[in-house]
Amino acid sequence: MKRSKALLALAMAAALTVSMTGCKSQDSTENSSEEVTTEQPADTERENMIVNGDFSDDLTNWFLYTNGATAAQSVNADGEMEIQVTEPGTLEHAVQPYYDGFSLETGCVYEFSFDVHSTVERTMQWRLQLNGGDYHAYVSDIITVNEEVQHVTASFTMEEATDPAPRLCVNMGMLEGCPSDLGEHTVYFDNFALYLTDDSGKVEGAGGVETTDINVNQIGYIPDAEKKAVVRAEAGTEITGEFNVVDVKTDETVFTGTLADAKENTASGEQTAIADFSELTEAGTYKVVTENYGESFEFEIGEGIYDKVMDSAMRMFYLQRCGSVLEDETFGHDACHTGGAVIYGDTSSAAREVTGGWHDAGDYGRYTVAGAKAAADLMLAYENYGEQFGDDTGIPESGNGIPDILDEVKYELDWMLMMQDSETGGVYHKITCANFPDSVMPEEETEQLILAPVSTTATADFAAVMAMAARVYQDIDADYQKTCLAAAEQAWSYLEATPGDGKGFLNPESIVTGEYGDPDDSDERYWALAELYKTTKSDTYLSALKEYKAEDIVDGLGWQNVGLYGVYAYLSSGDSSDVYYQSVESHFKQAVDSVLQKAEQDSYGVTLGSGDYYWGSNLQAANNGMLLLMADQLSPNETYVRVARQQLDYLMGTNTNSYCFITGFGTLSPENPHHRPSQAVGSAMPGMLIGGPDADLDDPYAQATLADRPEAACYVDNVQSYSCNEVTIYWNSPLVYLMTGMEAD
């Protein structure tokens, strides 16, 4: 969930002819000399695709990326963009001004140009490149610049697939040919222009992926579960008629029904109707067929249909392990990140060993608050549905007499214990390198590991999950139970001595990896107290817990808002006759009722209302399904289970995008996740829940391709779209809980 900015200097991938004046091109096919001018001729017939290429609107649309370097970006009195380099770093892309917001279409010919000069003679590389994946260049050139103003031009044909959101950038770090003592200097840019000069060879695209107008759970349905397909058409179109459920193997119709509940679905911007075939319970492989709206993708009905998905979803955690050799035919690798970590700002101390844990997401950082949410979900799944978990999933600990889910969680908890400062009890917020890595396997990220400062949110989340672990592992490993409880209590002592300042964690200067910031730690503290009380039954923790008014608890089952974990822990600990208990119970029920109301209003039954389709919206759907099953644990209710199942249906294909959002499963699933191991091997790791629709369009590719779509349809399967297609351990964890609950129901 964090933006990757790493770049690779790869070979040119398009036909290129470059002409430059006053400098020598190191990899162009043809050079020419002409009189240098700082003014480009007027061009009234063609549109410059680089908006504000002359910096007449200051730095609008222009940005500066640094990686291990120090530089500043501004526009001077002459209307030029200045890049003032104080420290050029060691990487080619250590200093990189960039521009997003144009497109390159297959077969089209373009002309690119700009003016440049520098206070020192040096080399640099301009690039029009893929803005994601391996960041390879469609066209690039290495140039030498000096005090003389040079007009750089290049004519090229786009030979790769159309890219609606590439990036223009200039690598200004330490390139080959730069003086070793480059030092402080300033480079000036002006008059960037990109023109389409010939579209006669344009190759039209295939028009995107093939979807369907009848959307179902592409994995399938348990025999006695509710089974509904959503039929769609353009808004304002009347949907009527019958539907048939056809056995794929025999091509025979096994069920016929009438389309019902026709209405406009606001979030997806379409007319919908429901095909309810819940009465069909016989095991088999089927599809829904209509006369006027086509047919659905195939699906199964049967027992244990989620088993393979569950196995892959759990194996994702093993494949995200850090610090050990992983055995896997496709994603196996040597031990990674085994070097010591330095504490940010403490140059006097020796590097610390902080190995293990799970890589958080598409990058290789390890974050305490994110890991705590994931570990909590899996431990809750075990607490509530323990009989569903075996000891034979194929991880190294299989066969040791302990359910593999607890072995996997312990791998994360062991790392979290290393993140606690033994003297104070505070917990470091994260361990990452200073910058995101390239699209490489984890053992290839070898930069210095840095322990970011202690935060109260990390410490409180740590206290909560360690208190949970003390409860969960009590009958499995008594010594480990004591270790976890002692760590939780020490963390709480730190929190008692450290009041929240309302600022939460902020990335230190020079660290650009995921921040996981949080301005309010009250919900984390509440969760910690609730888990400590549930485990110890100590009146000390209960008294502190009751200082929090129920109406002030920040709801949520995410990494930032965790209040509902605390509410559930307290409500499941007893004391139901207590007045405070009743106020918390009422607060919990309000949260549940709000989720149910959203599901009732949406044709797809998803618990996402207007404004809920943000970065990681699939997490919210999975969390809401998990919340409903937690509510069912406290007070059994068929409606809770039914709507929870609808969230799983949504994630598995009953959505307007026609995607099963779990990689490797269903007829149509994401093939291009923003996930470095998947990018490095060229194949999507199976069993990962991707982020899903993001109506906020939080990346350039989404902005270029999804701007006019309804909020529920703001999804694209592309590695460049990190806001739609990244993955995380704490998106998979509620998915595991949700699938387990459905199988156990």
What does this protein look like?
The protein is α+β, with helices and mostly antiparallel strands and 745 residues long. It is 27% helix and 19% strand. It has 15 helices and 24 strands. The protein has helices at 307-319, 368-385, 404-418, 456-472, 478-497, 522-536, 539-545, 563-571, 579-601, 617-634, 638-651, 676-681, 700-705, 722-725, 729-744; strands at residues 15-20, 62-66, 70-75, 81-87, 95-100, 109-118, 122-129, 137-145, 150-157, 167-171, 185-198, 214-215, 220-221, 228-234, 242-247, 253-258, 260-265, 270-276, 284-290, 299-301, 341-343, 366-367, 430-432, 449-451. The strands form five sheets. Strands 1-9-6-11-4-3 form a six-stranded antiparallel β-sheet, with no helix packed on it. A five-stranded antiparallel β-sheet has the order 2-5-10-7-8, with no helix packed on it. Strands 13-20-19-15-16 form a five-stranded mixed β-sheet, with no helix packed on it. A hairpin with an 8-residue loop joins strand 19 (284-290) and strand 20 (299-301). Helix 2 packs parallel to helix 4, helix 2 (368-385) runs parallel beside helix 15 and helix 8 packs across helix 9 (579-601). The longest helix is centred in the last third of the chain and has 23 residues, at 579-601. The chain is globular. It starts with 14 loop residues before the first strand and ends with a helix. 51% of the residues are buried. The model is unreliable at 1-41 (pLDDT under 50).
